[in-house]
């Protein structure tokens, strides 16, 4: 059985990706940050559907924790799947913070950098020796780093996601010698818990976002999760070094 590691799978896009990947017959190691309950619920949903999943804690902003996380992954692979390698990695964990450039603090900038760019860089480096040749990686970016999604307040967040897009291409270049494909996806406005449940707290923004979207609604987690699953799958075996916008045609 193939095995995937998905970070930030306690809700939203990561949760959907974990469930969609498991539906295709792949075992799942998923991580959660502050929301342990959500991580366990994702794992339970996968197992209820007949899949296999293990939830592990991980703060992708703390690179010092990565070696211990890798040891946990080694144990889980051996105990659950009788394997010493895994096949797929989805670097999805993250958070959003908006502020105009004039109001952005160094503390906010550094936290965004640690979680959104440094985290995926060094977590991938840490897990790479355990990854099977011929595997695949998907990095969750954002259309805020593209011309179509340019909105005031996202300068720091989008700068890190833009860096992740560049990193994805370099990963694709360097890991191609092992047959590992690497792509990034750039969701548009998606109904998740990002930015402290912004969609729950400010439902009035949804019609305006839907009006800016060619397909006439905001995204749902499964719109993105299914794309992630598809990029990992055999159907996408000839696709690498791409950044795919998954936004329903935002600002088209």
TrEMBL record:
<dbReference type="InterPro" id="IPR002347">
    <property type="entry name" value="SDR_fam"/>
</dbReference>
<dbReference type="Pfam" id="PF13561">
    <property type="entry name" value="adh_short_C2"/>
</dbReference>
<dbReference type="GO" id="GO:0030497">
    <property type="term" value="P:fatty acid elongation"/>
</dbReference>
<dbReference type="GO" id="GO:0016616">
    <property type="term" value="F:oxidoreductase activity, acting on the CH-OH group of donors, NAD or NADP as acceptor"/>
</dbReference>
<comment type="similarity">
    <text>Belongs to the short-chain dehydrogenases/reductases (SDR) family.</text>
</comment>
<protein>
    <submittedName>
        <fullName>Short-chain dehydrogenase</fullName>
    </submittedName>
</protein>
<keyword id="KW-0560">Oxidoreductase</keyword>
<dbReference type="InterPro" id="IPR036291">
    <property type="entry name" value="NAD(P)-bd_dom_sf"/>
</dbReference>
């Amino acid at each position: 059985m193939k095995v995937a590691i998905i970070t930030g799978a306690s809700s939203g896009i990561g949760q959907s990706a974990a469930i969609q990947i498991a539906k295709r017959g792949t075992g799942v190691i998923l991580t959660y940050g502050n929301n342990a309950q959500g991580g366990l619920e994702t794992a339970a949903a996968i197992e209820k559907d007949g899949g296999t999943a293990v939830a592990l804690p991980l703060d992708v902003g703390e690179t010092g924790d990565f070696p211990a996380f890798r040891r946990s992954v080694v144990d889980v692979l051996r105990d659950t799947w009788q394997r010493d390698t895994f096949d797929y990695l989805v670097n999805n964990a993250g958070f959003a913070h908006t502020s105009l450039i004039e109001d952005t603090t160094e503390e906010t900038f550094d936290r965004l950098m640690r979680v959104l760019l440094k985290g995926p860089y060094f977590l991938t480096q840490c897990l790479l020796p355990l990854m099977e040749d011929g595997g695949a990686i998907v990095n969750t970016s954002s259309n805020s780093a593209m011309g179509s999604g340019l909105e005031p307040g996202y300068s720091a967040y989008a700068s890190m996601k833009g860096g992740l897009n560049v990193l994805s291409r370099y990963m694709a270049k360097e890991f191609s010698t092992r047959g590992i494909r690497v792509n990034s996806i750039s969701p548009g406005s998606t109904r998740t818990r990002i930015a402290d449940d912004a969609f729950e707290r400010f439902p009035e923004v949804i019609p305006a976002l839907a009006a800016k979207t060619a397909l006439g609604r905001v995204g749902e987690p499964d719109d993105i999760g299914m794309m992630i699953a598809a990029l990992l799958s055999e159907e996408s075996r000839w696709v690498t070094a791409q950044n795919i916008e998954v936004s329903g045609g935002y600002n088209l």
